[in-house]
């Protein structure tokens, strides 16, 4: 057995254990009894200890030193394993285990604090999470920016400075478009009540329409929708609201985009570093192009209009054109996950700036709610009415996911680039979408991006699929064209 073969055999076991750890998290969100929280925290900590020990096992360093890549796949595997080995070796095992235990507890405390509209009850555990992540970041970064060390977990190669420059380029045109739209009459809103069982039934139909393979997955409900797993077991969740079926439908399509990426990876990469999405930004590009450029297109919403009439009868929207405008209605709102395409990224930029300040030590945890509320009022022009619509709305910080938020906007940027290339490659796309047939679009994405998993770096993954390096221009052009048409700008 060569050094590479021995390394990959060891790595497959590590990847399998990582999948088991992920399943613990899925269960905690969907099935776990409330009283199991303390034990689950211990279980998470134990798994984190095991995985940390494997990732810094001295044999990994020896195998890496001796392994010779025979092809691009082997070279990519070695790149991923080497990066993980070097990074993990810098983080003391005690910090990794304590983070796993603390974030498991923090998640449940956050959920209760959110339900109780009680920020104060969440702040002590959040302080502990922030402190631990700052310790971890300092260990990894050395003399570099600690926030970049955290960001690198989710988007290898990105920096706070590079993303800040991109976001600064996005902001003026987004703000101008938002202002122009809100100065125009708004399309009709949905009204009435929509049976939640019927919502879930139609959401499953949507999942299948976008290519989700339920033989290797399942759909459950969660407070905050998410996708979990890779390879042969990729699960998604959604949520329902009796007065807002779009929340259910587009949460489902969004999570299917994530799941389709994982399910579309070449099976030869199963339980290897290449067998998962290469970054959260690239991952988000798939969920956002499924949800927005495809799922909210005029062609697809025409088909969805018929499906909703079949499911709910006459629900007060006159025709397909009016329905398209309703689906894409731009309106005031507090919740990032429910925001329209125009305003969504403004929600992300708020979080990006606040969490950078937290990690830098420029913002105290006890001042976070006030800072959030002040920034929201400045960006959106109205005040946050309650914590669940403000600083407590997202699960991410309770789970220690600092550096994750900016990948949402980066994913939108990538999706804009992919959509331009997709339209060039599939000229008959709208005719397919009008029949509820997404196969040409999802097939193009699988062929040009999804199948490769982690083979390339994030930037090279998008460049390979589109033929050009990613930039914010295509996303802004798409948004301005689409919403100028809807709102008569």
UniProtKB/TrEMBL annotation:
It is an enzyme of class 3 (hydrolase). Its cofactor is Zn(2+). Its EC number is 3.4.17.19. One of its GO terms (biological process) is proteolysis. The active site is at 255 (proton donor/acceptor). The keyword Protease applies. Belongs to the peptidase M32 family. This is Metal-dependent carboxypeptidase. It comes from Yoonia tamlensis.
């Amino acid at each position: 057995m060569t050094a590479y073969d021995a390394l990959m055999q060891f790595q497959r076991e590590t990847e399998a254990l990582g999948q088991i750890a992920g399943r613990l998290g899925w269960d905690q969100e969907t099935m776990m009894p409330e009283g199991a929280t303390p034990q689950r925290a211990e279980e998470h900590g134990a798994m984190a200890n095991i995985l940390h020990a494997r990732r810094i096992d001295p044999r990994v360093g020896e195998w890496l030193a001796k392994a010779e890549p025979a092809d691009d796949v082997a070279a990519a595997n070695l790149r991923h394993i080497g990066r993980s080995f070097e990074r993990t070796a810098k983080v003391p095992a005690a910090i990794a285990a304590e983070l796993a235990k603390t974030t498991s507890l923090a998640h449940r405390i956050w959920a209760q604090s959110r339900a109780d509209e009680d920020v104060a009850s969440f702040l002590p555990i959040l302080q502990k999470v922030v402190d631990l992540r700052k310790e971890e970041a300092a260990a990894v970064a050395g003399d570099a920016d600690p926030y970049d060390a955290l960001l690198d977990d989710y988007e290898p190669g990105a920096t706070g400075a590079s993303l800040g420059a991109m976001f600064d380029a996005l902001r003026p045109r987004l703000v101008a478009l938002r202002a122009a739209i809100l100065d125009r009459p708004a399309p009709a809103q949905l009204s009435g009540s929509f049976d939640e069982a019927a919502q879930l039934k139609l959401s499953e139909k949507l999942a299948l329409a976008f290519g989700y393979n339920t033989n290797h997955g399942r759909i459950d409900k969660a407070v905050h929708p998410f996708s979990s797993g890779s390879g042969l077991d990729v699960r998604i969740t959604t949520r329902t609201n009796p007065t807002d079926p779009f929340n259910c439908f587009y949460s489902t399509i969004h999570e299917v985009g994530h799941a389709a990426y994982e399910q579309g990876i070449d099976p030869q990469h199963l339980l290897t570093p290449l067998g998962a999405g290469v970054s959260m930004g690239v991952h988000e590009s798939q969920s956002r192009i499924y949800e927005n450029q495809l799922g909210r297109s005029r062609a697809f919403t025409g088909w969805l209009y018929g499906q909703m009439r079949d499911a709910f009868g006459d629900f007060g929207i006159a025709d397909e054109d009016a329905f398209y405008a309703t689906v894409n209605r731009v309106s005031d709102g507090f919740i990032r996950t429910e925001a329209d395409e125009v305003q969504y990224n403004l929600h992300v930029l708020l979080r990006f700036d606040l969490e950078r300040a937290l990690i830098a030590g420029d913002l105290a945890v006890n001042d976070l709610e006030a800072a959030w509320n002040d920034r929201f009022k400045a960006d959106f022009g109205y005040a946050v009415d309650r914590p669940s619509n403000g600083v407590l709305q997202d699960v991410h910080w309770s789970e220690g996911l600092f550096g994750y938020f900016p990948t949402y906007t980066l994913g939108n940027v990538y999706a804009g680039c992919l959509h331009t290339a997709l339209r060039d490659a599939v000229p008959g796309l709208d005719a397919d979408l009008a029949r509820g047939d997404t196969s040409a679009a999802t097939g193009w994405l699988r062929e040009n991006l999804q199948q490769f998993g982690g083979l390339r770096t994030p930037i090279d993954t998008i460049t390979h699929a589109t033929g050009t390096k990613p930039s914010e221009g295509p996303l802004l052009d798409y948004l301005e064209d689409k919403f100028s048409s809807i709102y008569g700008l």
